[in-house]
Amino acid sequence: MNRVYIKTYGCQMNERDSEAVAAMLRDRGYSIVDSEHHADIVLLNTCSVRDQAEQKAIGKAGHLTKNKRERSDYILGIMGCMAQNRGDELVDRIPDLDLVVGTQKFHQVPDHLDNIIQSRNGLGPRPTTIVDLDEEEGSQNTIRAHLNAERKVSAFVSIMQGCNMNCAYCIVPKTRGRERSRPIDSIVEEVHELAQAGTKEITLLGQIVNLYGRDCMRRENGKSPFVRLIESVHEVPGVERIRFTSPHPVGFRKDLIEAYRDLPKLCPYIHFPMQSGNNRVLKAMKRTYTIERYRHIVDQLREMVPDMFFSTDVIVGFPGETEDEFQDTVHHFKDIAFDMAFLFKYSIRTGTEAADMEDQIPQEEKEARLQVLLDTLEGQSLKRNQSMVGSIQEILVEGQARRGDNMFMGRTPGFRKVIFPGSDRLVGELVPLRITEASTSTLRGELLLNGVEPETNVSLPSIAV
Ligand code: SAH
Ligand code: SF4
Ligand code: F3S
To answer: Most buried pick, 52, 191, 261, 383, via CB within 10 A?
Structure first.
C-alpha cells in the first residue's frame, strides 16, 4: 500500500511542487502512479486563485472519500494553496481527510504519510487528520528534487516562493506567504543536474519572478539578482532555452530588456500579465503601474526583439469596471496584438481587498466581456500563426503528440506548439521544421533534413526520421 497519485490544480508553481513531492516520495520508497484508480494514496495539490479552482478540488475530494469508506487502508490528502487558505475549515467540511499540508510544508509529506501508515499498523498514536500549515524558514529551498525516471526535455525550476505584492483581487500572498528567494548557487546546481540528465529547456518560476532576490541580494553593476541568475543559467552547458514566468512591470528594467539582446538562449517569448488596460482599474487593483509604463516595456522588448511573442493575463469585471474602462482593455489588447492570453472573470476571494468593494459586476456582464476578449484573441492568435506558415522554425521536440500515430510535439522559440510526423529519437533534439499549416492554437510542420527543405532538394531520399 504505497502507490501514490498526485492530482494538481492551478499554476506551474503547483505543478513543480507536485513533482518535487513525487520525487521525495519515490526516494522514500513510495511508487508514483498516473491514475487515481491505481492508487492507495491520493494527494490533491490545490489552487485558490479563483472560486472555480477551489470548487473543483473540493468536489474531487468529496468524491474520493467514498474510497475511504470502501478501503480501510486508503489515504486522502489535500496540499497546497487551498489547504493553506482554508485549513481547518476543510477538515470540518471533509472530516474523512487524513492530511492537510500547506505551501511551506510540502517536504514534510513523506514523514506525514509514513506516520499515518505506521499508526494504522498499530505502531503509533491513533490517527486523526494531520494538519500542517505553519510557516517554515527556508522552505523555498526544499522544492528541489526532480523525477528523473524519463528524460525531461523541459523542466520547471522554482527560484522563489511567495509574493509581497498586494494586488487587491489576489489570494496568493495569503496562500504562499512572503517572498523568499533561493540562493543563485543552489538554483544553478539544480540546473546543472537537469542538463546532465538531458534537459534542454529551463523555465524559472516565481510569482513575480523578475523581483527574485530582492529579499536578500543587491543589484550589482546595474544588474538585478534576476538578470544575474539568468546569466548564470545561460552558462550551463546543455541548456539551450531559457524561459521564465511571471514577470511584473515593477522592477522590469533595462538590464532585463538588454538580456534579450545579450543572451541568445533567452527565448523570444514572454508571459507578461497586463490585468487591465485602464489606469483607474489598475490603480484600484493595486497593480502599481500605469498602462503607459506597461506599453513602454512592451515597446522596448519589441525594439530589442522585433518578432517577440507576447502572452498575458487579463481580469474582466473587476469591481467597478465600467464598459468604457473595459473598452480600454480591449483597445490595448488589440493594439499590443497578444499572441496568447489567459483571460479570467474576476472571482471574489474572501479576505482580499476587492472582495468588499462595492459595484461588483454581474456574472452575465463578466461573461460578455470575457467573450469579447476571447474572440479577439482567437483572431490574433490565428493571424500570428498563419504568418508563420512557410517559415522555417527551430523546434525543441518534447515528445509524442497526444493524437496521431508517429506524430510528435515541440515548440518554437516563441512558444508556439507544432505537431509534425517524426520519431522517438528526435525527442529532446532541436530540429528545423518548415511550418505548413496553422490553426489558432497549433502549427503543423514537416522536418527538414540537415536544414534543407526536402522538396527543394530532389536528390534527397524521403525524410530520414
Ligand atoms: N503573480 C502573477 C499572477 C499569479 S495568479 C502576476 O502577478 O502576474 C495568475 C493570474 O490569475 C493573475 O495574473 C490574474 O490574472 C488571475 N487572478 C488572480 N486573482 C484572481 C481573481 N480573484 N479573479 C480572477 N482572476 C484572478
Ligand atoms: Fe497575486 Fe499580484 Fe502577487 Fe501576482 S503580484 S501573485 S497577482 S498579489
Ligand atoms: Fe493557484 Fe496557488 Fe498558483 S492559488 S495560481 S496554485 S500560487
So the answer is: 191
- CB of residue 427 inside a 6 A radius of ligand 1: no
- Distance (Å, whole) CA 159 – CA 155: 13
**Domains of the chain by start residue, with CATH:** 3-132 (3.40.50.12160), 139-385 (3.80.30.20), 392-462 (2.40.50.140)
Average pLDDT over residues 106-115: 96
Mean of the per-residue pLDDT values of the chain:
93
Query: How much is the pTM?
Result: 0.94
Residue 128: per-residue pLDDT: 81
Cα 250 to Cα 200, 236, 297, 306: the distances in Å are 30, 28, 10, 23
267-299 as b/e: b if 16+ CB within 10 A: bbbbbbbbbbbbbebbebbebebebeebbebbe
Using N-to-C axis directions, what is the helix angle for 254-262 and 291-304, rounded to 10°?
A: 20
Ligand 3 atom showing the smallest separation from residue 171 Cα: 4
pLDDT tens for 329-348 read 999 999 999 999 999 999 99
What are 244's three cell numbers?
521564465
CA of 49 to the centre of ligand 1 (A): 7
Task: Classify each residue of 41-68 as buried b or exposed e, where b means 16 or more C-beta atoms within 10 Å of its C-beta.
Answer: bbbbbbbbbbeebbebbbebbeebeebb
- Please check whether residue 263 is in contact with residue 234, taking contact to mean a CB–CB distance below 8 angstroms: yes
Cβ–ligand 3 distance for 176 under 6 Å, the answer yes
Residue carrying C-alpha cell 497549433: 442
Cβ-contact 81, 175 below 8 angstroms: yes
- Best mean pLDDT range from 71-75, 124-128, 185-189: 185-189
Give the position, in ligand 3's atom list, of the atom nearest the Cα of 49.
4
Indicate the DSSP class of residue 204.
Answer: E
Tens-place pLDDT, residues 156-193 = 999 999 999 999 999 999 999 999 999 999 999 999 99
Distances in Å between the alpha carbon of 431 and those of 396, 401, 410, 440, 445?
Answer: 7, 16, 9, 23, 11
